[in-house]
Each structure stands twice: as C-alpha cells, then as structure tokens.
Amino acid sequence: MSKKITTVEQLRETVDQFTQDVERLTDEAKYEEAEKVNSKLETLKALLYEKEEEELKKKHAISIEELKQAYEEKMNKFNFEWDETMTKFENDSATLIKTTKEKQNRQLAELETEFRTAAETGTLPPVVFSQECQLLREQEKQLGKMKKFKEAQRTKMAADAMEEDEINRHQKGLEKRNNDRIIQLKKQMLFELTNLEKTIERERNANRTKRLDETAQLEQRYKNMQQEQARKNRTELNEFHSKRAKLQFKERSMASSMVRTSARSSPKKAGPKAKSSPKRQAPH
C-alpha cells in the first residue's frame, strides 16, 4: 500500500481491491501470493470493522448530544417565556395593588374632606334638644312673662347648662359617627386589598404549579426520547455486529467449501503396482 489510508472510505476501497486481488491470484493459481495478500486483507477487514464500529458509536454519541442540545434549547426558550410571563404577572400585580391603594387613599381623603367642609360651613346636622330641655326653656319664658325674674334666671341657667351638655354630646356623637364611618371605610379597604392580594397569590401559585407541571412534562418527554434513541442505537449496533458475524461465517463457509472442492479435484497419486505371480504351465 503506497498510499496512506486515512478514512473509512479509503479503507473500504482498499479492502475491495485486496479482495479482487485475492480472487485474481487464486484464479491464476498463485497461492503463495494469494496467501500474503489475504493475510493483509484480513488485517484490513479487522481494522475496517473497528473503524466502522467507531464511526457508528460516534454517530450514536452525536445523536444523543444533538437530542440533549435540542432539549436544552427548548428548555431555555421555555424558561425564558415563563420568566417573561411571571415578570409581566408580577408587574401587573404590583400596578394593580398600587392603583387600588391610590383609589382607597382618595376615597379616605374625600370622606375626611367632606367631614371637614361640613364642620367649616356649618352644614352639620342640627342639634335636637331633649323634651326636658325644651320644657325648661318654656318655663323660663313663662316665668319671665310672669315677672318672676329670679326664678326665670335660675331656669335659664339650668336650660343653658342642659343645652350645652346636649350640644357637646351631639358633637361627640357626630365625631363618633364620622370616626365610625372612617373605621368602616378602612375595614372595607383592608378587606378589598387583602382579597386582591389573596387572588394574586392564588394566581401566582397556579402559575408556579403550571410551570412545574409543564417542566416535568418536558423532562419526561426528553427522557422518553433519550430512551428511544438509546434503543435505536443499541439495535443499530447489534445489527452491525450481527451483520459482521454473518459475513465472517459466510466467508469461513466459502473458504471451507473451496478447500473441499480443491481436494476433490486434485489427481490422486498412483500407488506401487502389485507384482503379478507367474502363471503355471499346464503339463503336457
């Protein structure tokens, strides 16, 4: 072999050429040369088998690696899309909470402004004095008309004190009512905000669960594809070995057949002739 063999294809061509050379030398009855070439041929066949097996295993390794790369690319895209989805969800949720709080703050400010304006403009609900207080005022007027001024003064002072007390109680009642309305509004605001946050948390957990489920599905699909590719690779490698074994068996069978045919067609060597015993002459 003057040319250096570097590829499997060159090795196959060389094996084919040596096979033809062996057949030709055999036909020409140049058995010694045929034996030498055949010895090289067997070495080349063994080398070709090793190279083909190596190439097949490399192809299998590439198929597994390509499958892995495809899976990683898909997972990267999957995670990127989910990250974007979750980022948008969190941003939208934060915006919704912010706008809800701003709306609630406006509602509270409007209610406080309403109370303050009513106090400043005197549009608060008027005081309704008790019947007892009203009777005292009537008595005061009657006593004044009757010129019982000392008694009228005492009655007036009692009525003034009672009115002042009832006005104070009325103002405290208004303040309590306003405070109760503010407390009620704050409770409603807290309830609304809490429900909103719970809804957001439920949706967040649902998204996380969905992402985990889809991730598990992708991982399982990848494992299934890995197992299927490994099974195909094993089958192909087994078929390669089986084909090699069948070829070797066929070559051995052909070689044995040729040896038997050659043996039958070779002329047998003649053995030494037996000496014939001298014939006796009959007596005259």
UniProtKB/TrEMBL annotation:
Residues 229-253 have a biased composition (Basic and acidic residues). Residues 266-284 have a biased composition (Basic residues). Residues 224-284 are annotated as: Disordered. Keywords: Coiled coil. Residues 8-121 form a coiled coil. This is Uncharacterized protein.
